[in-house]
């Protein structure tokens, strides 16, 4: 594929993930025209449009406040308004754009990956492993979701495909003991990063909490700094449910950063802005497909333009 074709398919895909958000926003911003300042009624309409587009009440209120003071030298028109909205969305997103970096010393850097089943957790672990391999880091995986044999098997398939070592245990085995073995193996063999899959059953919050707490305790015993990262994987097609999941996983596992997947489909990506405004957690990357190199850096300016419909 030519570089041009590759880049156009990439922007098409990300446009897909934010389409529901941006179409709804465009529908509601379209009619707003006027003199050099926005009226209160227009500001109300913009705020409503932002909320309807999944950006959440807090981000919407913040953008309204900022636009209230804005001057539009040539009068308000659709394009100017979209550009102003894009700039305000970018201002919310820029502080949270933060790639996951391997910096822990001593090694390994332990990255716990959490999220509900089906969110794209396993695929994201494989994509992260690939990304770190490309940066010449030694990677190891740990199959800490022992609830389903399929979950262990799926991770193993990825490990084999990528040629990275993996520590697994039997179905129903103790995740903490797998993680213990994995940290020891990673330390002994000089691995740079250990990426740990974890269970994602929210049906029994108490059990999940106990399981993740035990994994954390065991990790802490081996290395007081571990886990260095606790990355929550969110499925963008879940819209506002993503916010509830952040809330729950913050409580059960202490989240340090987010990766949003499935931003290539019919997602409601606007929820990323709501999450950024409400929680301020780093957004490490976004998933835009099922293939191994479909994990992309989170580009706040591009995402803001796509949401506001500046790119069309
Ligand atoms: N379109 C698209 N599909 C994705 C993306 N990430 C993951 N998927 C797909 O989503 C489905 C679920 O992904 P998994 O990685 O198995 O999810 P999981 O959270 O580990 O789920 P369990 O294996 O059930 O615990 C799979 O079919 C993946 O191929 C993405 O960024 N875009």
Automatic annotation (TrEMBL):
Domain SRP54-type proteins GTP-binding residues, every copy: 108-309
Record-listed E.C. numbers: 3.6.5.4
Binding-site positions, GTP: 115-122, 197-201, 261-264
UniProt cross-references to SMART domains, sorted A to Z: AAA, SRP54, SRP54_N
Compartments, record wording: Cell inner membrane; Cell membrane; Cytoplasm
Alphabetical UniProt keywords: Cell membrane, Cytoplasm, GTP-binding, Hydrolase, Membrane, Nucleotide-binding, Receptor
Membrane protein topology class: Peripheral membrane protein
Subunit structure: Part of the signal recognition particle protein translocation system, which is composed of SRP and FtsY. SRP is a ribonucleoprotein composed of Ffh and a 4.5S RNA molecule.
Function per UniProt: Involved in targeting and insertion of nascent membrane proteins into the cytoplasmic membrane. Acts as a receptor for the complex formed by the signal recognition particle (SRP) and the ribosome-nascent chain (RNC). Interaction with SRP-RNC leads to the transfer of the RNC complex to the Sec translocase for insertion into the membrane, the hydrolysis of GTP by both Ffh and FtsY, and the dissociation of the SRP-FtsY complex into the individual components.
Family: Belongs to the GTP-binding SRP family. FtsY subfamily.
Protein name per the record: Signal recognition particle receptor FtsY
UniProt source species: Novosphingobium jiangmenense
Upper classification of the organism: Bacteria, Pseudomonadati, Pseudomonadota, Alphaproteobacteria, Sphingomonadales
Gene name in the database record: ftsY
């Amino acid at each position: 594929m030519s570089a041009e074709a590759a880049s156009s398919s990439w922007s098409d895909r990300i446009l897909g993930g934010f389409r529901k958000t941006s179409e709804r926003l465009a529908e509601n911003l379209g009619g707003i025209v006027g003199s050099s300042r926005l009226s209160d009624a227009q500001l109300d309409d913009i705020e409503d449009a932002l909320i309807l587009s999944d950006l959440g009440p807090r981000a919407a209120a913040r953008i309204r406040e900022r636009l209230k003071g804005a001057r539009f030298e040539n009068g308000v028109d659709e394009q100017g308004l979209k550009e102003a909205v894009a700039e305000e969305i970018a201002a919310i997103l820029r502080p949270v754009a933060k790639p996951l970096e391997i910096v822990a010393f001593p090694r390994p850097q332990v990255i716990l990956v959490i999220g509900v089943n089906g969110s794209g957790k396993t695929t994201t672990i494989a994509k992260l492993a690939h990304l770190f391999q490309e940066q010449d880091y030694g990677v190891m995986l740990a199959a800490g979701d022992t609830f389903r044999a399929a979950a262990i098997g799926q991770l193993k398939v990825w490990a084999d495909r990528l040629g990275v070592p993996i520590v697994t245990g039997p179905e129903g085995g103790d995740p903490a003991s797998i993680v213990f073995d994995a940290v020891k193996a990673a330390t002994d063999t000089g691995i740079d990063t250990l990426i740990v899959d974890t269970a994602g059953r929210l049906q029994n919050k108490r059990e999940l909490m106990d399981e993740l707490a035990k994994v954390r305790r065991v990790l802490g015993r081996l290395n007081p700094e571990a886990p260095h990262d606790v990355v929550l994987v969110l499925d963008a097609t879940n819209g506002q449910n993503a916010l509830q999941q952040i809330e729950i996983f913050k409580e059960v596992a202490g989240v340090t950063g987010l990766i949003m997947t499935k931003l290539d489909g019919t997602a409601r990506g606007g929820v990323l802005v709501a999450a950024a405004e409400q929680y301020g957690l780093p957004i490490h990357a976004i998933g835009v497909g099922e293939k191994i190199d479909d994990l992309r850096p989170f580009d706040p300016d591009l995402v803001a333009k796509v949401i506001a419909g500046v790119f069309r």
